[in-house]
Design brief:
Structural class: alpha+beta
Order of helices and strands: EEH
Number of helices: 1
Largest sheet: 2 strands, antiparallel
Number of domains: 1
Radius of gyration: 14 Å
Number of strands: 2
Distance between the termini: 44 Å
Length: 35
């Protein structure tokens, strides 16, 4: 498990969070107006 700021974080939590972050960024890019 990863230790971050004194908290024990399972690897799957980081993987899930990374997936959500990437999906959110891709969604923002797709919604951005083309110049």
């Amino acid at each position: 498990a990863w230790t971050f700021l004194g908290l024990s974080i399972p690897a799957w939590t980081l993987v899930a969070f990374a997936g959500l972050a990437i999906g959110w960024l891709l969604q923002l890019r797709s919604q951005a107006p083309r110049i």
